[in-house]
Every structure is written in C-alpha cells, then in structure tokens.
C-alpha cells in the first residue's frame, strides 16, 4: 500500500497552494471500509481515493470523505490518474467506480476524465428558496439569464448561477447547508457559479457534507455545468470552457471542461504531489 497526497486542478507551479488536496492510496486491498474511512479522516481532505486491482490499464477506485463513502470525486480522480501515470500506467486507464466505468487519460503532470452521463432538470422552487436562505442569498442574486437547476451525474449538484459580485460576498450557513445536503442525499457540492464570458466561469462550492466548509475545485460540478450549458443552448458546441474556483479560500484552482456536440463531457486538470506534512 502506498499513501500519497496530491493537489488537483492546480494553476501554476508558482502558486504552491493552488489546487484541491486529495488523498490517493494505491494497492489498498488490505484495507477494510472502516480502515479507509479512518485514513480519509486522518488525511482530512474533502476526499481520499482508494485504488485496488491495479493493472497498467485499469483499476477499481472508491472515494471516502472524512464522514462517509461517496460515489465519485472528480479532483481525487485527476489526482489518482497522475499518481497512476507516475507508477507506470498506460496512457488511458479504465477506472471502475461506483457509478460506472470512467476512462481517464493520464500523464505524470495532467489527467483528463470522461464524465458519466448527466441529467439536468429544474430545481424545485420550494427547495430553491430553502437553499437560498441557507446560503444567505435571495432570488435577486440569481443570474436572470441562467436559471437554477439540478444536475445529476456521478454526484448530485444543485446548480445556482448568480449575478456579478455575489461570489465575493458569499457567507453561507454551513450547518443549514449540511442539513439540506443530509436530508436530500446531496453527496456533491453546491456549485454557485458566475458567467464571466461564454466560455469562462467563476465558482464557489460549499461542501459541509464533505467535512469542509468549501471545496477548492470540484470536477463533477464542472462536468455538470458543461452539460447544463449544452442542454439549455447557452453554449455553442463543441466548446471548451474554464472554471476558476477556490480563490476566495486561498486555493486557486483551474478546471478545463470540453463540451462536445454530443456524448460525454471531459474534465481535465493538472496535479502536483504535496510534500509530507503539508
């Protein structure tokens, strides 16, 4: 067994705190579920990935927050892809997740995952009001051109596009958000996004269900955003978009999303290994 810590969706090497930290445990066959949960809690990151049955072209992968196992995690998948590449994996690895097979292209510096199919539906109005209250926002803070929605892919995400200036003053009630996440079974973050241009977005993602106040980079939410934009016709396809996240909490991150005219969304980013004790 080899336990690593990496930062995924980093920006540049000069920003040493960029990216979202993730644990990656290779050859985890000897670990029980309580053992995986204990290691995830010891790491203290929003997610830790545990890989078993590793071959050059495939692996089984599971994800644990400090609180529980979840179905999928984008940034821990990117981190795992880079870790596998550095361990000698093939250029493309088939990852068996709890939500299906996720192909990932890997190099020692960067990885690109192909997201599972995602559905998009309107967010229930009563639930939207409850969520806005937990976030300290109102309907006046929403983007009038991009309606709130619920995206369900590898993880469920209520997606809230907001007007300029809202992200900078966001100060959510973490306990209220957690109660909603627990009640609704939202294993994913709550992405609050601002459209800067057709292909550039800013995002903040409260995530108390993951044991942290806010997630610095969320690959599954970025994939959901890409599908949302495509289905609603808010984006010419094919297109590549960028999602900038984590700046407000001191961990600037950059997520690249490729949105084809049809088929599955692709999410890519770089990753760096963290020094011991970081």
How would you describe this structure to a colleague?
This protein is an alpha+beta fold and 278 residues long. The chain contains 5 helices and 17 strands. Helix 3 (125-135) runs antiparallel to helix 4 (174-184). The longest helix is centred in the last third of the chain and has 14 residues, at 219-232. The chain is globular.
The end-to-end distance, rounded to whole angstroms, is 20 Å
Number of helices, where a helix is a run of at least 4 consecutive DSSP H or I residues: 5
Structural class, from helix and strand content? Answer: alpha+beta
How many beta strands in the DSSP annotation? 17
Please provide the ordered H/E string of secondary-structure elements. Answer: EEHEEEHEEEEHEEHEEEHEEE
Q: What is the class of the largest domain in the CATH system?
A: Alpha Beta
Residue-averaged pLDDT, rounded?
96
What is the number of independent domains?
2
Range of helix content: 10-25%
From the spread of the alpha carbons, the general shape counts as globular
Oligomeric state: single chain
Amount of beta strand: 35-45%
- CATH fold assignment of the largest domain: Diaminopimelate Epimerase, Chain A, domain 1
Low-confidence parts: none
Instruction: Summarize the biggest pleated sheet.
Output: 8 strands, mixed, barrel
**CATH 2nd-level architecture of the largest domain:** Roll
Evaluate the radius of gyration.
17 Å
Name the CATH homologous superfamily of the largest domain.
Diaminopimelate Epimerase, Chain A, domain 1
């Amino acid at each position: 067994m080899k336990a690593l810590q990496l930062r995924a969706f980093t920006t540049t090497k000069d920003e040493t705190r960029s990216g979202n930290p993730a644990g990656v445990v290779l050859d985890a066959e000897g670990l029980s579920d309580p053992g995986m949960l204990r290691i995830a809690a010891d790491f203290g990151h929003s997610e830790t990935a545990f890989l078993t049955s590793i071959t050059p072209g495939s692996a089984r992968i599971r994800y644990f927050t400090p609180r529980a196992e979840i179905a999928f995690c984008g940034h821990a998948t990117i981190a795992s892809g880079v870790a596998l590449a550095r361990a000698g994996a093939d250029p493309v690895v088939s990852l068996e997740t709890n939500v299906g097979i996720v192909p990932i292209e890997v190099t020692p510096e960067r990885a690109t995952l192909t997201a599972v199919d995602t559905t998009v539906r309107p967010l229930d109005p009563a639930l939207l009001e409850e969520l806005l209250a937990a976030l300290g926002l109102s309907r006046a803070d929403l983007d009038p051109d991009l309606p709130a929605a619920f995206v369900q892919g590898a993880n469920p995400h209520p997606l809230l596009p907001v007007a300029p200036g809202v992200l900078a003053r966001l100060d959510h009630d973490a306990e209220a958000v957690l109660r909603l996440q627990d009640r609704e079974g939202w294993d994913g973050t709550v992405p609050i996004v601002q459209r800067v241009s057709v292909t550039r977005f800013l995002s903040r993602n409260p995530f108390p269900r993951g044991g942290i106040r806010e997630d610095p980079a969320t690959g599954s939410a970025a994939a959901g955003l890409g599908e949302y934009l495509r289905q609603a016709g808010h984006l010419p396809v094919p297109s590549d978009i960028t999602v900038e996240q984590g700046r407000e909490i001191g961990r600037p991150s950059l997520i690249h999303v490729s949105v084809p005219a049809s088929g599955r969304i692709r999410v890519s980013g770089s990753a760096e290994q963290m020094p011991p004790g970081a």
